[in-house]
Design brief:
The complex is a heterodimer of chains A (389) and B (271).
Chain A: H1 3-7, H2 10-35, E1 39-54, E2 59-75, E3 79-90, E4 95-108, E5 112-119, H3 147-150, E6 154-162, E7 166-173, E8 185-186, E9 201-209, E10 213-228, E11 234-251, E12 254-265, E13 271-280, E14 286-295, E15 312-324, E16 327-336, E17 341-350, E18 356-366, H4 371-374, E19 380-388
Parallel strand pairs in A: 8-11
Antiparallel strand pairs in A: 1-2, 1-19, 2-3, 3-4, 4-5, 5-6, 6-7, 7-9, 9-10, 10-11, 11-12, 12-13, 13-14, 14-15, 15-16, 16-17, 17-18, 18-19
Chain B: H1 4-7, H2 10-18, H3 35-44, E1 51-61, E2 67-78, E3 84-92, E4 100-105, E5 112-117, E6 122-126, H4 142-145, E7 153-163, E8 166-175, H5 178-184, E9 188-194, E10 200-206, E11 212-224, E12 227-237, E13 243-253, H6 264-269
Antiparallel strand pairs in B: 1-2, 1-13, 2-3, 3-4, 4-5, 5-6, 7-8, 8-9, 9-10, 10-11, 11-12, 12-13
Classes of the chains: A mainly beta (389), B mainly beta (271).
Amino acid sequence: MKAYEIFFREKAINHAIWVIFTLVWILFFSFYNITGHASTFETGGNITSNLYYYSKKSEFQAFENALKLDLEWHGEDNLSARFIARGGYELFENNLNLNIVEGYIDFFTDNSDWRIGKQLIFWGKADGFSPTDNINPDNYYILSQELEDLRQAIFAIRSDIYLDKGILQLVYSPEIAVDKYPGLTLSLPESIGGQNWSNHTLAVKYDWIKQKTDYSVSLYHGWASVMNPLPLPSLQTNRMTVLGFDFSTVIGQTVLKGEMAYKAYQNLDANLELSLETSYSPKENWNIAGMVFRKGPGFPVLLPQVSQIDTSWGIGGRIEWIPKDYHTIEGFFTYNFENKDAMLNLSYTWDYSDQIDLKVFYTAFSGETGDFAMMSDRDRIGIGLQYSF
Amino acid sequence: MIKLKQLRRISILMILFFGISLLTISVFAEEGQNEGEEIMQRILERESWNSMQSLMTLKIISKQGKERTYKLESHNKTFADETNKSMMIFVDPPDAEDTRLLTFDYPEQDDDMWIYIPQLRASRRIAASGRGGSFMNSDFSYEDIGAPNLEDYDYKLLGSETIGEQEYYKIECIPVTDIIARNTGYGKIIRWVRKDIEVIEKSLYFNRAGQELKEGIAQEIKQIEGIWFPIKQIMNNIKSGQVSIITFDEIKVNVDIDDKYFSQRYLEKGR
């Protein structure tokens, strides 16, 4: 195997990123300290403790204690950097999970922002199902209630160019990553990497901000996680191109958001995914949201001589109620009409103080076929404590 | 993490702290106006600043003595078309840090409002909420913080009162319609206006059943660029025993604020 082929393998690229980032960090930090340029350092993070219990199996799933460190540096001239890392120890499996949440350098010109490094890039305006949000794969290994922990940062170069009428965003990434899902092995096709530039990810998005309504159009040429059940269930990448559109508008006290994504795959049939959401607050301490969607399965399945992706319609809803200051009760459900599978999540959060939050939640899955049906034995109760600093 | 619901009305705070609206002082009373209305008209329609930058602290003290403190940075500017734009950034506590709220308040149309949530790495458009809700679980509501619309209330001068060394006009304000009463949550407000500088220094709020709800007090009233402004505002919730205090730690007015503060770029990137 040639050196550059090894370089672009999943583990090697992470090592390279660590080395490059550390060197650049030291270089700029030292430069600014030696030359006397003013700069500021901000630190923060949190400590979390999460306990999960499988209610149907009557056994504890996990007990994890984690520390997250967030380091941010602002240079005097158009330069800044950020590094967020999370380390968690899970007691029952005796697992130590170390994860770079993000690590990047920002530099700015008059009308553009540039970000290089491991980063999270979230597209789409929907809060529930977001078919245009495809850049960062999921990480189901991490036990956390924070979105940034549940998505994998990728090494990318991102540019936001501020034009008169809107914002143009360009994304390039040489890294190829799949969703991380417990119980499924990961595999990358041999053809990926190396000097094969056509395997890299390119994405472009244009945002219009108008009075009352925001719009975006996007084009993503990257990778999707696809399940290959043979010989053993595993996740593979499959080339995917997505043409997306989304909007968000306010009508009175109601917010309406929608997304549409036409997804074309290398080895699977194309499909169209849709999402439409609305939210409303009938009273100050109530918020109700509803959504209707059309989506494919979480992991399209790659079967010999079968390339069809089954899409189906579904509905979902969310209720948020604040019965008392600093106490929040939330409920979320989603139901798929084709598979007749469903997911329900109930949670209670106590914002105990400026820095301490307590959360208790219950998640249930049901159905005979579909993504949620696969998890029907994983109903769980969780309790989490977080201290932010 | 700050709840989206708690932030919906935040920018209104800044718009209304910042300025009262019109640029001309109304000198002559309209025909049929009573004295109470004349006084309130002079207060609500006086000349204001074109821009304001501030650092403020909101402290909420429960009846049991437990405290919550929020620090916010704000930028506020009125443009030539009378659109008022504001950017509010949460500086503290840690779980709210870098949350930003951008509001465009148009003279004759509904507001545009966006919030940037750091955990989502994205901004969201939100609906501007009604007047009666509370700001950050505090005892201040939208209605309390800002200058009310003159035409929303009927006014009656109840007389004069001397408190300490100061003399005050005592003015009763009653919502003109049931809808306004329902939206604000108030059946009546009594205001104490300092006679020497015509600033509302104390307000007593009643619910629609006529029961006392809250008492608002303006302290450390200073003249900034010709405008009297309370550096500290206290709201005592008579019912719950909670006290909320807003303090302007730093304030600059009529400064040339770069338009960049009122952009999507600043909302999402903080620069």
